[in-house]
## 1
Amino acid sequence: MDSIRIRGGKPLYGKIEISGAKNAALPLMVACLLTEETVTLSNLPHVADISTLINLLCQHGVKAHLNGNGCSSGRSVALAATDITSTEAPYDIVRKMRAGALVLGPLLARVGKAKVSLPGGCAIGTRPMNLHVDGLEAMGAEIHIEGGYMVAEAPNGLKGAEIRFDTVSVGATEDLLMAATLADGVTVLENAAREPEITDLVHLLRAMGAEIEGDGTDRLVVTGKKSLHGAEHRVMPDRIETGTYAIAAAIAGGRIELHNTDAELINAVLEVLEEAGVSIERTDDGLIVERDPATPIHGVDILTQPYPGYPTDMQAQIMALMSVADGAAMITENIFENRFMHVPELSRLGANINVHGRSAMVRGVPELVGAPVMATDLRASVSLVLAGLAAKGETVINRVYHLDRGYERLEEKLAACGADIERIQESA
Ligand code: EPZ
């Protein structure tokens, strides 16, 4: 397994092009199952989860054509689900990437059946599928669990329904939204997630002929159609990648320009950075983040919440920054029950963090010191990279395949800004 070696303590100066959003691209790709015609997506990030999902879609019968080299303009993919040849999403793929389970609603809506593996738990929590299942059952599907699979049928098609989520769920909102576009009648989704990735999905579905109202709000109203057609769509910029590099500039000090993105998407993160003493300038195509390495970071309390609140996918990164703050910060994780796997690893670098239930008390230390650490999930891994940029001496992050799932050319982008970072390839 590859690892990443960082020699910390260098301020960062330069420009970074932000890639297309992984968490937008995955549901957008799944939406191809809703039509016989071709869906073409551009600004696709070049990350491992995208390839995993292409494999899953291909085994459902989708024909996929990838173009471009994955540099700043992004790759594009043309996906044609002319014939669905298999309705089974196997455990081997879904357990690795939970977004694979999003095929449940679209397959049921398009062909009336699906057999999709339960994703199981993962490093950040149990991550159940009950909201997806309950919603599809309310739309007339019959679903039972057999051998670890959700076996679903809707022989007479799905019917519009009024569904109220008791927890805000990005995935369940996306799954039911896609299913509703081909249901008979009107579906109302209440307490729907409002993440920008959902709005991006609404834009594609509309371009495919779907009738949807309420995007950007917690109430989505979908009038089902008999069929949808092909469309072209550009994947939105990755707000989590944007926020991650903003924190890189904050923790290492220096000045980084982030291009091809939109500061508005991560306002909650930028407000915290400004409160911590980091300078942010919003520009036409992104932002400029600046901190004089001699200026201290102030401790700021953080509470993760559904959008537009502070994102859970930026919790580990801000914890790395708060580890070197002048003061203390209380970080509370409200979305997942077990998303503090980075704490023992940050502690290995000298951070002073105590976890009490869903909250972590971070007491800033004057400096971190490099050490070998282990990546446990995507955002935990990148928090170790950020900590390594600030730490004195050498930090080696092992098991970086987690990073490759969601960050495109991470070490190249940081090295271009002056970071001393390199990938150590696994020896054969
Ligand atoms: C999406 O996961 C993202 N993944 C996650 O990003 C992100 O952390 C999460 O949303 C929250 O913002 C993708 O978009 C591919 P949820 P998702 O359903 O949709 C509970 C990353 O690092 N819940 O919004 O799976 C669930 O347990 C990843 O890029 C139920 O109770 O998350 C959690 O507590 C990690 N029942 C809460 O809802 C359900 O049926 C929110 O989860 C579904 C979810």
## 2
Amino acid sequence: MPLVAAIPAAPRSLLDFTFAELERDFIASGLAAVHVRALWRALQRELKNEFRGDEEFSPPLQRWLTANVGAGKAFFIDAPPETADIASSDGLTRKFLLRLVDGQTIETVLMGFTGRHTACVSTQAGCAMDCVFCATGQMGFVRHLRPGEIVAQVRHAQRALRASGQADLRNLVLMGMGEPLHNYDAVMTALDIITDRRGLNLGPSKITISTVGVVSGILRLGEEQRPYHLAVSLHGATEAERSALVPASKRWPLAELMAACQTYYTKTQRRIFFEWTLIAGQNDSPAQAERLVVLLQGLDAHVNLIPLNPTGGFAGIATASEAAKNFKQVLQAAGIPSTIRQRRGIDVAAGCGQLRAEKSRA
Ligand code: SAH
């Protein structure tokens, strides 16, 4: 049998395939199971970005790779080059701007201390959700990312850690550019790949999907019993206050969103994280915290309070630390755990979409 896969109309990324898909499609086209395992290992564990022909593969696999993978051939490997790599002054955040094959740029952030790194990846180029304070929202939607383009960001972060002699990546958050549940299928395929034990092997319990509140996506996550953490961006506890900041609330109203969270909780018994960007004078009063307490009744909730990162298109300013503590105090008195997130990496524009926005202005 010839060791040449059916040539797809347009080149496809090898990183778009889960292990099961690779087995199904490639074994059918002539590669043996042992070759698929070797290929997967090279791609997803050794994180190879190219094959030079001098790898220690068996001759049939080597021939297949030479015939099928590379420029002008049926398959390629997503390896977006860096157009920027910036470290924060405290050394705890590194931000990469990566250029995709069509010239779009996306952000990937690496955060944390030695041995405990978290990668923050993008799921779309731009975003359709229009959150007023978010740099990505301000640039608008360009396109969805393919699974391989999401996987490639995790590989990029992992390779950067390995290159500097650090331990492998521990945590992953889908809090970069884009709305993960607006690109549901690609995101779930990417996470299947990233959590594969034969490959990158990130623990599902170390992965957080953050959503603006796409109701259908939250319900689907629950129905499918996806083993990831769910974070919901709330920012307001009444419809009027929320939709002033998060226009997507008009499409998925707060009442429907909270009902979906209850359904998700009933189905999964999982804690839900709620994100609340603290904006001075807008959503940071004790009365607003009280309303949030009421909204979260009946859930196992944890609130992440994020002081606003200033962006070009929004005039608001961050809540001062005293007011943030008062807000937290109200939650605490009601038995709701919360964390005030440090504005780590603010000097490298670590807010969602800020680096790309800066670079395109320059
Ligand atoms: N689309 C997803 C992921 C976005 S980024 C979502 O909406 O959840 C992750 C979090 O950062 C969201 O809660 C988002 O509202 C928040 N965020 C975006 N820009 C910010 C800024 N400039 N300052 C503070 N938080 C911001």
